[in-house]
Amino acid sequence: RAGLAAWLAAMASVLVSAAVAMEMSFRTVAADWPRLTQDLCRSVAGNACTPEVYGSVLYQAGVTVLAASLALAGAVAAWRCARRVRRSRAQTRSHARAALLVGRAIAGRARTVMLEDPRPAAYCVAGPPAAIVVTSGALAVLDQPQLEAVLAHEGAHLAHGHHTLATLTRGLAAAFPGIPLFARGAAEVARLTEMAADDTAARTSGRPALAAALVAIATGAAWPSAAFSSPGVPAGALAAAARAVPDRVERLLRPSSPARSAAIASALTVVLVLLAAAPPGLTFLATR
């Protein structure tokens, strides 16, 4: 959770800083347009920028076009992000309705359905209506405690709003492809939300059952939970697994010590404070 907060704060700080910079620029334009154009000209051409240059109609028109283009680019990026978020939410709702319509309900589990598919998979889709989907292939390789662990994992995603975080961060990455932080942040948020859901499921179902379930779904073969009762992953268990699964299983079987977790949380708290304070600090310094 602390890692998620740090990444989200970093991404938010970029947006807030950009908004502060735009607000300051518009305020400067309204207060002293001639001085702004002069400073801009001299920052590029130095002493070669004479009053005849920055006072000319052609130069003033060019600066105006540049300012309008930057404002338009920002508006287009915001529109692309909003459109991506709307489309993602519409597709999610449509898939949830279809899954609830064609899937077979799992007894004792509200809005949890089984779809006939030999490929092992389990996932959730946010609503309304929300749904948890498990394929017949997954049921074939999971025992009951492992299935409970998987359902607890997916339920944690829905309960904690992880879909919203994923949708927003992917929208930012798509809208601002020139900012590496957003692309990396979207991937890290997806990875960390999986680990956060793992933590929730492990508290109710136990780490061995969840680790065995992850490996069983990733490899398509049944694994007894007892094989994961001691630290270390059984040889060959992850040969066909997705890239994120080995890290998650190792993390479940080798949890950090309380002291190390507290130290990491403290360090991330400091980072969060610095990220939150950066935009207001920039605004204060700019007004001095």
Task: Give an overview in words.
The structure is a single chain. With about 290 residues, the protein is mostly helical. It is about 70% helix and about 5% strand. It is built from eleven helices and four strands. It has helices at about 1-30, 35-45, 50-55, 55-100, 135-140, 145-160, 160-175, 180-205, 205-220, 245-255, 260-285, and strands spanning about 105, 110-115, 120-125, 130-135. A four-stranded mixed beta sheet has the order 1-2-4-3, with helices on both faces.
Cα Rg:
26 Å
**Segments where pLDDT lies below 50 for 5+ residues?**
233-243
Strand content: 5-15%
Count the DSSP helices.
Answer: 11
Distance between the termini: 37 Å
**What spatial form do the alpha-carbon principal axes imply?**
elongated
Element-by-element helix/strand order: HHHHEEEEHHHHHHH
What strand line-up does the widest sheet have?
Answer: 1-2-4-3
Largest sheet: 4 strands, mixed
